[in-house]
Amino acid sequence: MKDYTYSGRKYILAGAVILLLLVYLFSLMKIQLDNEEYKMLAEKNALYLKTTYPDRGLIYDRNGKLLVYNQPSYDITFIPRELKKLDTLAFCNTLGITLQEFNDRVEKAKDRRLNPGYSTFTEQDFMTQLSAEEYASIQEKLHRFHGFYVKKRAIRQYNCNSAGVLLGDIGQVSQKKIDKDPYYKRGDYIGTQGLESSYEHVLRGKKGTEVYLRNAHGRIQGSYRNGECDTIAVRGKDITLSLDIELQELGERLMENKIGSIVAIEPETGEILCMVSSPYYDPTLLTGRERGKNHIALSKDIRKPLMNRAIMGAYPPGSTFKTSQALTFLEEGIVTPETAFPCHGGFPLNSNRRLKCHAHSSPTALKPAIATSCNAYFCYGLQRMLTSKKYKNINEAMNIWRDYMVSMGFGYRLGVDLPGEESGMIPNAEYYSRKISKAWKAPNVISISIGQGEVTLTPLQIANLGATIANRGTYIIPHVVKEIEGEEIDIKYRTPKKSMADTKVYEDVVKGMRHAVTNGTCRAANIPGIEVCGKTGTAQNKGKDHSAFMGFAPMDKPEIAIAVYVENGGFGARFGVPIGALIMEKYLKGELSEESEAKAKQIQETVIDYGTEER
Amino acid sequence: MEQKKGNILTRIDWWTLILYLSLAVMGWLAICGASYSDVEGGFSEFFNIEQRTGKQAMWMGISVVAGIILMFIKKHTYRNISWIVYIATLALGILTIFIAKDIKGSRSWISIGSFSLQPAEFMKVATALMLAAYIGRREFNIKNSKDLLRCIGIILLPMLIIVGQRETGSALVYLALFIVLYREGMTGIFLLMGISAIIYFVVGIKFSGEMFDELPVAVGPYAVTVLIQFFSIAMVKFWCKHEKTFLILLAVNAGGTLLTYWTAIYLIEFNIMYTQYMILAFNIIYLLLRIRLNKEKTNLFVAIYILGALAFYQSCNYVMYNVLKPHQRIRIEVLLGLEDDLDGAGYNVHQSKIAIGSGGLTGKGFLKGTQTQLGYVPEQDTDFIFCTIGEEQGFLGSAFVMVVFVLFILRLMAIAERQDDKFGRVYGYSLAAIFFFHFTINIGMVLGITPVIGIPLPFFSYGGSSFLGFSILLFTFLRIDADRDPKKHLV
Q1: What is the 3-state secondary structure (H, E, C) of B153-193?
Q2: φ and ψ at B417, to 5 degrees?
Q3: How near does any CA of chain A get to the CA of B202, in Å?
Q4: Quick one: pLDDT at residue B376?
Q5: Is the pLDDT of residue A592 over 80?
Q6: For residue B239, how many other CB atoms are within 10 A of its CB?
Q7: Helical H runs in A33-112?
Q8: For the domain bounded by A245-294+307-605, which CATH number is listed?
């Protein structure tokens, strides 16, 4: 029979079947055993992670007064694909918006450039940060509109109307930040300025997640494994500031109508008692639905109220800087307290030019030189140092000078616990070799000895100079946060740093500063019953002189060191000294005397005209 | 005569029955897994007739009863009534086209009361019987082209009717019966042609848009011409068995192709498609000349094959871009990896791969698959039932199912081989081929290997007609096998 020929084909066929089985088993293996990706995709499909937001940490002032707390706010969200049968007009009426606004908001959510996370299946923001009252008025009606949901969030609320730039604020996290830190998801809030930003990790707490099962239509089917995989949100830690809010308020009052800054530090601890940057803004402006509008207005303001001048403004320190020069010269043996230099209306730069000084007796020793703020004395001092045989050459002398300045906290950021600090400027030998010539001479740079020229400091650095002198040579990096709930503050805010000048020479400068208050330029800083030390500063610049003051009190057991800087305020004695005195009086005595209160009112009302130029 | 063979129960092939029952039970459990999320209440709810699982259990019962009834019909009765059954089911199939309600574009379901039946499922039994009876005739000779064409006619007729019902996927199943013809002695050339056609299609379409870096020629059509050269020369080698013809063609084709390719790239740029067509034209002319010199009839066939292959490829292009509807074209493009449309046509396969892939080695456990329970895979209890097994039972479970299924097919082939006549053997092979085709396409589709053709996995996919149809197919064969004479062998 013919059949015999083909019986071999059964092996071919059976072989084909087995081959196919092997191929399928192999691809099954590749999908199931060799690939973790599908597991992830399945989880991504099925598990819906709902984030629960923790309460942000509260902020107290040094006296335990609550400054910043949380208030519930409500975001209205919508799921685009569920909006099919919406009575748009009724909905607009409920929310009190126009049809145009409604369409704009929906379009805005759909714009994938603005909102890359857009999906018709997930919640999209419709209107954010409604207050409890606003929400209450629409709550009852909202459930009638299918597809709209309410997300409860917490926003910041303030018990004070000051220290806005210091406290900072929170806003929606940027895409850049999300890319860098996977903790953040779109729509999360993050501290964007001030303390909210620098203490973000402490304040934010830890988000929790609730895991739900979600079906193919995006509907939630219930909790996953009865909540076994949920994590509970951990509330943020509270922080206590070293700030005295009453002192801060007084400072802001005194700086009204002026541009400038006040920084007060407790010398022993480096705690910042007040940090005023003027013009200032009310932190309550940046909460709630008006936040966006107000923020734009503030950022467009030509006086830059969002800038913290106390740490971001680098100014010529003027005569307040002379104290640091005295310390350097004494320590290096360039002068002794008894060394006297002549001053006949200034320091001769060359045969026909003088760096001018005002009228006072001549020659002057250190103490009267500080007290009367003699320019010539410090110019002679720096000239003597730069030309001293003690050093190999002028460059070495210059760099030693620079080292002294750096040891007092100048030229680099101090490291305050606030974002955006500036370093100021302390020149060195290389700088002048480049800027002037390799053969630069002392007269070229002499004005740095009186806090002019290339030297700039931030008000914080000036205040820290005051604190260092008050401590007779040491300082702790100034900081605003005194305590963090359940943890210690950074070790760097607990460790003293030493200036290169010795305690002994500090005593000489303290005497000079005391003399300035009793007999010199700062007589207005005198507070009855308290030994105040001070130094004025009158810094030249393109416009009218800046008025500055640096001081501390009491002399032998200092409790407060202060720097005041009023842009274009004229003589140091005009604004710097009285403002400094009032702050110190308030802090040391608890309140202002009647006489001082009147003075405060007068200063508050004094307006400095800055024109319309951007600053 | 029947008495001599003893009790029917002792003559049944129990291995087949055991494999069948285990597939059925595993299939039902898989349906439980796939439809669990719709079921409220305890496990007993699975037997509730309102649920899909309950319905399926009922159909399984009906199938077993029908099977037992079929066991009472003798083998020669099956052979004698085969043509009546064939004509009756074809008539019913044609009738269906006109009376059936349109369900998603298909007209294949007849409703009787609350039951719906798909007559196409029973057409397989009829066609297999008819084919077996025809080939089983004493005077049948597969080398006789008239006989062969009639066999092909028996297969194509039901296919046409089912295409008429707009169930192209189910129609393709009948192609599996060509495997039976191959077993019965049809030249393997036909299968080779089929396989080469698939390769032309896949390669041609997949690379039709890709150009050579250096030449203005599309890779797809060029590759197809090279493949046609390869297959035609292979045919000459193994079929015509004329060494000289083979060597000349090999030299001309390989040499010509390489030479023109290098010339075009390194020397003068020209359209290498033309030279390819010239080489193929040479092959045809040479083969035709050889017919006269060698009296080689097969040469004519190869020459026709070359022409036909070219025509086939061109018409594929035409059908793909001018005849197919966009959604059909996208399905093919997704399969060929030209499109990555995960929300559209590729969604099913993507989700099914996620379901299977997330199962891992041991699976997530019965009724615990998230993809399945949350309904991510559409049609997870019918065509995509295998993902439920993959996800909930993991590699071990799904590999076990595959192995059992293949054992079942191999067992059917083994029984087919032991039949005492061609009627029994052809019927047995038809069965094995049909199950094999379903298995290949369905699991291949779920694994993302074969196109998404909507055909069920026998005994697993939810559906009463399908379960009943496959059971009838099997029980008929069990009786045919039981009635064979164990002492008589065909081989």
Answers
A1: HHHHHHHHHHHHCCCHHHHHHHHHHHHHHHHCCCCCHHHHH
A2: -65, -25
A3: 19
A4: 76
A5: yes
A6: 17
A7: 37-46, 88-95, 99-110
A8: 3.40.710.10
Q: In whole angstroms, what is the distance from residue B365 CA to residue B369 CA?
A: 7
Ranking A520-524, B392-396, B402-406 by mean pLDDT, the lowest is A520-524
Q: Which tokens belong to B27?
A: 């299939």
Round to whole Å and give the CA distance between B114 and B92.
Answer: 19
DSSP assignment of A391-411 equals SSSHHHHHHHHHHHHHHTT-S
The position carrying tokens 């191959």 is: B182
SS3 state at A388: coil
Residue A239 main-chain phi, psi, to 5 deg? -125, 145
What is the C-alpha to C-alpha distance for residues A416 and A458, in angstroms, rounded to an integer? 12
For residue B223, give the amino acid letter: A
| Domain residue ranges in chain A | 48-153+206-238, 245-294+307-605
Reported confidence tier of residue A613, pLDDT bands at 50, 70, 90 = confident
| Residues A286 and A166 sit within 8 Å (Cβ to Cβ) | no
Name A355's Cβ contacts closer than 8 Å, sequence gap at least 6.
A346, A347, A349, A375, A376, A379, A446, A447, A450
- ipTM > 0.95 (yes/no): no
Nearest to A32 among B182, B395, B443 (CB): B395
| Residue B302 touches partner A, C-beta closer than 8 Å | no
Token pair, residue A363, equals 């020659």
Show Cβ contacts of residue A584 under 8 Å, excluding neighbours closer than 6 positions: A264, A525, A527, A530, A532, A551, A553, A560, A562
CATH code for the part of the protein at A48-153+206-238: 3.90.1310.10
- C-alpha distances (whole Å) from B427 to each of A585, B135, B346, B482, B491 are 112, 10, 37, 13, 16
> pTM (2 decimals)?
0.61
Is B398 in contact with A41 (Cβ distance < 8 A)? no
State the SS3 of A139-158.
HHHHCCCCCEEEEEEEEEEE
The continuous run of DSSP H or E covering B406 comes out as helix B385-417
Phi-psi region of A214 (alpha: psi -120 to 50; beta: other; left: phi over 0): beta
Q: Which one, of A594, A478, A509, lies nearest residue A323 by Cα?
A: A509
Mutate to test the interface with B, among A13, A43, A211 (most CBs of B within 10 A): A13
Domain ranges of chain B: 3-186+334-482, 190-323
Say if residues A431 and A399 touch (Cβ distance below 8 Å): no
Q: Is A319 an active-site residue?
A: yes
H/E segment holding residue A171: strand A170-172
Q: Where are the alpha helices (DSSP H) in A332-451?
A: 366-372, 375-386, 394-407, 429-435, 442-445
